[in-house]
UniProtKB/TrEMBL annotation:
<keyword id="KW-0288">FMN</keyword>
<dbReference type="Pfam" id="PF03358">
    <property type="entry name" value="FMN_red"/>
</dbReference>
<dbReference type="InterPro" id="IPR051796">
    <property type="entry name" value="ISF_SsuE-like"/>
</dbReference>
<dbReference type="InterPro" id="IPR029039">
    <property type="entry name" value="Flavoprotein-like_sf"/>
</dbReference>
<dbReference type="GO" id="GO:0016491">
    <property type="term" value="F:oxidoreductase activity"/>
</dbReference>
<dbReference type="InterPro" id="IPR023485">
    <property type="entry name" value="Ptyr_pPase"/>
</dbReference>
<protein>
    <recommendedName>
        <fullName>Phosphotyrosine protein phosphatase I domain-containing protein</fullName>
    </recommendedName>
</protein>
<feature type="domain" description="Phosphotyrosine protein phosphatase I">
    <location>
        <begin position="196"/>
        <end position="325"/>
    </location>
</feature>
<keyword id="KW-0285">Flavoprotein</keyword>
<dbReference type="InterPro" id="IPR036196">
    <property type="entry name" value="Ptyr_pPase_sf"/>
</dbReference>
<dbReference type="InterPro" id="IPR005025">
    <property type="entry name" value="FMN_Rdtase-like_dom"/>
</dbReference>
Length: 328
């Protein structure tokens, strides 16, 4: 399981930073891989409101960290934790820059009708602090989080909000803090960590492996977590494959092939599926491995992609036997 934390306060070691770090520390101890993005120092360009994503499905800004890295991390995440202080009843400007750029995901979802393979299981968690104590203190931030999580295909599952937290470190004296965090770890993190993990490996991890991983994830929902990797990873996914998946409504945009040992963030899978007729060596010692002898399609025409999808789909169907087998 991979958790992406978005830290929205510009104050280093401030209350938001401390709250998010405490949550991620507990999640890591429960077995999750975690990563924090400091919004104030991420160098993300604000949305231009140009409408390009609504007509092209991608963001017009191609060369900033949002496009080159953060869109990809948001797609890989099983849980996105948005953490922000209340600033004038909203999220901080620094976090809002990242959120607004997710209009690209909104367009992919609502204009292009695409679904991320993790849509059934991804969760969104809001963490927030504020100095005052008014009844509606977190209403604005809750609404922003609701629509942000919807755009990134995450279910808004938990919110931890703390009033009367102002000076640096004040969050530490919240008596419920440890208990509140533990409740989320128990309810959401542990079940996600416990899912069976299947790693799909093809030569370059750019066509067959992502296709199989996405179909298996969609088919088996919360019973498994899939990832894909390459023995010699390509720089990008195969464009005809991504287009073929879009035809069945599955979104593989903003995903890139990873080296197979990085695909699960260093966590060992329960099953490796190697796809190919030549590179059939088990890539990971001590991990159960099966081979699907499916060659790369001879060309990248639409019909060939369709054939590959059907062939891999049949194999994915038969995975159910492994999924239903009791764990040793
Ligand atoms: C620009 C700005 C706007 C703020 N607006 C509010 C507000 O509307 N309501 C409130 O209760 N606190 C407000 N605060 C206080 C912060 O939410 C509070 O100090 C918080 O603990 C800061 O979190 P941090 O340590 O993570 O930066 C504001 C602080 C700043 C700097």
């Amino acid at each position: 399981m991979f958790i992406l934390g978005l830290q929205g306060s510009p104050r280093k070691n401030g209350n938001t930073d401390t709250l998010l770090a405490a949550f991620l520390e507990k999640a890591a101890a429960a077995g999750a891989a975690v990563h924090t993005v400091q919004a104030a120092r991420a160098g993300v360009t604000p949305c231009k409101g140009c409408g390009y994503c609504e007509t092209h499905g991608t963001c017009v800004i191609k060369d900033d960290p949002m496009s080159t890295e953060l869109f990809g991390l948001l797609r890989q995440a099983d849980m996105v934790v948005a953490a922000s202080p209340v600033y004038f009843y909203g999220v901080s400007a620094q976090l809002k820059v990242l959120i607004d750029r997710c209009q690209t995901f909104w367009s992919r979802k609502y204009v292009y009708k695409l679904k991320d393979p993790l849509v059934a299981t991804r969760e969104g968690v809001l963490l927030s602090v504020a100095a005052s104590r008014g009844r509606q203190l977190f209403d604005g931030i809750q609404l922003t989080a609701k629509y942000f999580f919807d755009a990134i295909d995450a279910r808004f599952s938990h919110a931890l909000t703390y009033r009367g937290v102002e000076s640096k470190g004040a969050i530490r004296s919240q008596s419920r803090l440890a208990e509140d965090i533990e409740a989320i770890i128990e309810k959401s993190v542990r079940p996600m960590v416990a899912r069976k993990k299947i790693l799909f490996v093809s030569r370059q991890g750019g066509c067959r492996a992502p296709l199989a991983a996405a179909m298996a994830q969609q088919r088996y929902g919360d019973r498994i977590r899939t990832a894909f990797g390459g023995r010699q990873p390509a720089a990008t996914l195969s464009v005809p494959m991504v287009q073929a998946m879009q035809k069945i409504g599955l979104d593989l945009g903003y995903r890139t092939p990873l080296a197979m040992d990085k695909a699960f963030y260093g966590i060992s899978p329960d099953l490796v599926v190697t796809i190919g007729t030549t590179d059939t060596e088990p890539p990971m010692a001590g991990v159960e491995t099966v081979n699907w002898p499916i060659p790369n399609p001879p060309g990248m025409e639409e019909a060939q992609m369709e054939g590959l999808r059907l062939d891999l789909g049949n194999h994915v169907d038969r995975l159910i036997q492994w999924i239903e087998r009791p764990s040793p």
